[in-house]
Amino acid sequence: MRKHLGILTGLGLTVLLTACGGGTASDANNLAEGARTGTDSWGNSFVMLVLENGDFYSLYGTNKAGDFVLQGFDQGTPTVNGSALQGAITEYDSSNPAAKGKLDATLVSGSALKGTIANAAGTAAGTFTATPLSAKYANFDYHTSAKPSDVAYSWTVTTLNGSAEKISISATGAVAGSINGCSLSGTVSPRGKGKNVLNMDLLFGPSPCANAKQSVSGIALDYDLGNGKRQLLAALQDPKKSYGYSFSAQR
Q1: Is there a single domain that holds both residue 153 and residue 188?
Q2: Is residue 229 a part of any domain in this protein?
């Protein structure tokens, strides 16, 4: 299901980060870097990341009995003009081709992001407010370095059709499992700069995988829900950025 307006031809969240005078994405990290969460005006819950290298992710879905079930994600490579954030990204969801979108947003209250999301044609729009993930989950610290051993468990993946699948991650970062009948293998590894986000690389198995024997790469985020459970979110795309792959899991 498309996150933003079912009839959209291209829509998404993006953060463009340039310093005044035309800086690079990294120049704006002091303003926008971090992990945030919220609910948009379409009723989607999301977890939003602006990473140390300027990459942007917004992973969106629904909450079902305390489990965040991903439906897709937005991804872009940001740039910033003071506190103003605007630009274009690609949206990947579970049932539609990749689509282009744009965003106008502003940093407010020092750490929150508030903005308007529009489709590429500018004919439809919605709003969102994103506040720090640590304000909702007190044990999460974006500036603590993540390591593969942090996610070394057997995770239960809840799919959109409600089935429960398993993904296992070893202490050294090896990933193995199957989702919706598609076997997966790969790795998780630390990112640079000591942030609480992991890199993830996956290789799809043979048929019935929709993208048999193809690879995707992106990020994985793990945090304590405060109820004795942990949440794992993953968002990945192929090298040409023609399709994306995401899943959510708990343990």
Answers
A1: yes
A2: yes
Taking the C-alpha atoms of residue 111 and residue 130, their distance in angstroms, rounded to an integer, is: 9
Cβ pair 170, 150 in contact under 8 A: no
Give how many domains the chain has, as a whole number: 2
In a domain, residue 20? The reply is no
Kindly state the greatest CA–CA separation across the chain: 51
For the chain, which ranges sit under pLDDT 70? 1-30, 78, 82, 110, 160-162
Predicted pLDDT of residue 218:
98
Q: Where are the alpha helices (DSSP H) in 162-241?
A: none
Angstrom distance (rounded) from CA 138 to CA 122: 37
* Contacts of residue 189, Cβ cutoff 8 Å, sequence gap at least 6: 148, 173, 198, 199, 201
Residues comprising the chain, all counted: 251
Q: Give the model's pLDDT for residue 53.
A: 85
- Hey, which bits of 109-190 come out as E strands? 112-119, 125-132, 154-158, 164-169, 174-179, 182-190
Cα 103 to Cα 89: distance, rounded to the nearest angstrom: 9
Question: How many angstroms separate the CA atoms of 73 and 60, rounded?
Answer: 6
The CA distance from 244 to 79, in Å, is 22
Residues forming a β-bridge with 234:
220, 247
Tokens of 24: 């690079």
pLDDT of residue 117: 73
